[in-house]
Amino acid sequence: MAIALLLAAGRGERLGADRPKAFVQLGGKPLVQWSVEALNALGDIEQIVVALPPDMPAPAGTIGAPGGSVRSESVKRALAAAGPGDPVLVHDAARPLLTAELVQATLDAVSREGVDAAIAASPVTDTIKQTDGEGVVTRTLDRSGLWAVQTPQVFRRASLERALDVPADVLAAATDDAWLVERSGGRVTIVPSERENLKVTSPLDLALAEMLLAGLVGQRLKHLTSF
Ligand code: CTP
Ligand code: MG
């Protein structure tokens, strides 16, 4: 059965709250609690291990593990604290709008033949340009093949363990775990996801998440279209 690693050990410096980001209140509960509930909604996740900042408690029904100094180190520590279980779902507590449907879709995708990892991502909507050191544009990328990567990311356990078995400087360079699987020769597939599965980084993101959770955005759109 599947297990989940929930990453909540970051400090949340860009959010700038009075506590670590995963424990900031959102819609009446700590940010991390929304993901715990989405992961539990399916009944397919046997165990949730939460990578925690110092002195913070594990959410009810989960197992706590001390986080590391960088994100992938937190993944490694949470995996070491986990019981048996395969595949392994990795999710950032900073994405509280996780849905059970997306959890299901990523679990389904990794169960396909020859797939080492299945990762949620949404198509890039902005035009992306590359520049030289002076800020002069050197290239405009073809947007059609570009994806903005999110979590959840689900891995076959052996692939993730192999990918994480690298020196500390490589772990520190990883902004997502799928990259570690790619560089160890693994096959990573995309599971299309909505942009609503946003990452809370700044106060603006927190306000947006609050509105989406309250259904305010939907209501307001309805109001606007009724004119
Ligand atoms: N994370 C973690 N361990 C770390 C760093 C980050 O578990 N050493 C987690 C965060 O808790 C978050 C996710 O990884 O859920 C994505 O990281 P990010 O959005 O950068 O969160 P923070 O590191 O908390 O924020 P900041 O970079 O602004 O300090
Ligand atoms: Mg960070």
Sum this structure up briefly.
This protein is α/β, with parallel strands linked by helices and 227 residues long. It has eight helices and eleven strands.
Structural write-up:
The protein is of the alpha/beta class and 227 residues long. The protein has a single domain (2-128, 143-225), classed as Spore Coat Polysaccharide Biosynthesis Protein SpsA, Chain A (Alpha-Beta Complex), CATH 3.90.550. It contains 8 helices and 11 strands. The chain has helices spanning 31-40, 71-81, 100-110, 157-164, 168-173, 177-183, 203-214, 216-225; strands at 2-7, 25-26, 29-30, 45-52, 63-66, 88-92, 117-123, 129-131, 137-140, 147-155, 188-192. The strands form 3 sheets. It has a 7-stranded mixed sheet, with helices on both faces. Strands 2-3 form a two-stranded antiparallel sheet. The longest helix has 12 residues, at 203-214. The structure holds cytidine-5'-triphosphate (CTP) and magnesium ion. Cytidine-5'-triphosphate binds next to helix 2.
Structural class, please?
alpha/beta
Molecules bound to protein: cytidine-5'-triphosphate, magnesium ion
Low-pLDDT runs of 5+ residues are none
CATH class: Alpha Beta
Number of E-type strands: 11
Write down the secondary-structure element order: EEEHEEHEHEEEEHHHEHH
The oligomerization state is single chain
Strand content: 15-25%
Question: Terminal Cα separation, in Å?
Answer: 50 Å
Q: Helix count, per DSSP?
A: 8
Q: Percentage of helical residues? A: 25-40%
> Judging by the overall fold, what is the CATH architecture?
Alpha-Beta Complex
- Biggest sheet record: 7 strands, mixed
Q: Which geometry do the CA atoms define?
A: globular
Strand order of the largest sheet: 5-4-1-6-10-7-11
**What is the third-level CATH name, the topology?**
Spore Coat Polysaccharide Biosynthesis Protein SpsA, Chain A
How many domains in all?
A: 1
Mean pLDDT score: 94
User: Rg to the nearest angstrom?
Assistant: 18 Å
